[in-house]
Design goal:
The chain is α/β, with parallel strands linked by helices. The protein has one domain: Alkaline Phosphatase, subunit A. The strands form 6 sheets. The chain has an 8-stranded mixed beta sheet with strand order 8-7-9-3-10-13-6-14, sandwiched between helices. Strands 1-2 form a two-stranded antiparallel ribbon. It has a two-stranded antiparallel ribbon with strand order 4-5. A hairpin with a 6-residue loop joins β15 and β16. The longest helix has 26 residues. It is globular, with a radius of gyration of 22 Å.
Amino acid sequence: MLNFRFRGEGHRFCDGLTRRQTLRLGATGLFGGLTLPQLLQAEAASKGSEQQRNAKAKACIFIFLEGGPPQQDMWDPKPDAPSEIRGPFNPIATKLPGVIFTEHCKECAKINDKFTVVRSHSHNDNGHSTGYHYVMTGRRPTFADGEHPIPTNELYPSLGSIIGRELGSSGTVPPYINMPHHMSAGGPGFYGAEYAPFVIEADPSQPDFEVKDLGRVDGLSEQRSELRQRLLSGLEQRRPRIGRAAAMSTYYSKAYDLITSPAARKAFQIQTEPTSVRESYGMTQIGQSALLGRRLVEAGCRFVGIDGPGWDVHFNCFPSLQGDLIPPADKAFAALIMDLEQRGLLDSTLVVMMGEMGRTPRVNAQAGRDHWSMAQCILFAGGGVKPGQIIGATDKQAAAPISDPVSISDLLRTIHTLLGIDSDKEYPDPLGRPVPIVNGGKLIPGLIA
C-alpha cells in the first residue's frame, strides 16, 4: 500500500507555502522500504502494440522547470522591444541562421540544429500547482492553486504513469522514475499504486548520493534474505495464490530481483561516470539528474521525470536567472542531447524541457516577472522529432502566440504519438466512465519527422 511521509523542502512558491513532497512509498521489511512490487505491475500490463514497436521513441526524459521559465529571457528574445519588456540580457546568434537566443543559453545556441523549439505553447491556467496538474494530466484540476497535496492528481493519471503503463520496462529498472524528488502532479491517479513513480529522493550532484531504497534492511544478511525468499516460495508452492494475490507475488519477486540485480544497481551508480562526462553536464542538481536520466534510459526506464525547481522569479529575478537558473539548465539540456547522440540513443529517446507556464512580458516594479501561462517555449529533441526548427511565434512582447498555437492536449497527444501510444485508448475511471489517454488535441504541426 502507499505510505506517504512528507517534509518541508527548501524552495517555496510565491504563495509562501513550502512545497511538500513524498519521501518514499512504504513496503515490507523484506525490501527495506522499496515499493517496487506495485510499481513493477506496470511492466506486465503492456504487451507492446505494433504502433509501439514501430515508434522511434522508446523512452522519454522530461525536464520540468518548475515555477515557469521566462521565454523572453531564454529562447524567444525580443531585442527590439523596450527594456522593460526585453530585459537586460543580450541576444546571441545560434547554429541556425536568423535564430537568436539570449546570451545565457549559449550551450543550446551551439547545437540548436539538433533540437526544435516550440515558441507558441499557450494555456490559461496561471497557477503553479494547478498549471503543473494541467500539463501533466491534460485535465483541469479540481483544487485551487496554493493547495499542495502530493501528488496533486488524485483522479487523473500523469504523463509518466500513462507511459509506464503502456510501454512497461524494457530492463531491470522501474518503467517510471522521478528525481530528485516526487513531481507534484506525477501520480498514477485512478490507475492505482502499481503505476506510481519510483522516486529517487536525493540530489545526484552530492558526493554522498545513493538510492537508499535499493539498500538491504540493516542487520539482514544476504544469506538470511535468500532464506526468506526460499521459505516464501515453499509456502506458495503448498498453497498457490490466485487472482490479485498471485499477481502481487510476481511483483514482489521482481522487486527482489531488482534490489539483488547488479545491472540494476549499476544504473543508479552515477559515481562510475568519468569526471569529464559529469562535468560536461555541470555539477548541479539539474545537470546530474539529466545524466542519471540517461543512465536509467539505457537500463530500460521508459519515463524519467526530472523536477527542476526555483523558476518562480517575482523579485529581482535577473541575478538568479543569470547565475543559478538559466546556465545550469542550458548546459544540462545541451550535454544530454550530445551524450545521447554520441551513444546512439538520441533517435530512440525523446527529450522534452518545459515548465508549467512562462513569465509576464513586462518586468514588474520589483525587477521580476510574474505568472504568464499565455506564452511559453518547449524544447523537443530526439525520438522522432524533426530537429533544427522554430515552430510558432509570439507577438512583439512574447505575450501570446501569433502563429501555430499549441495547447496542452496538443503537447500530450504529440508526446504519446512519438512513443507509439494510442492517445484515444480509454480506461474506465472509478465510476466506470471511459477516460481517453488524451482529451482531444492534435499533433504539433511539423514537429514529427
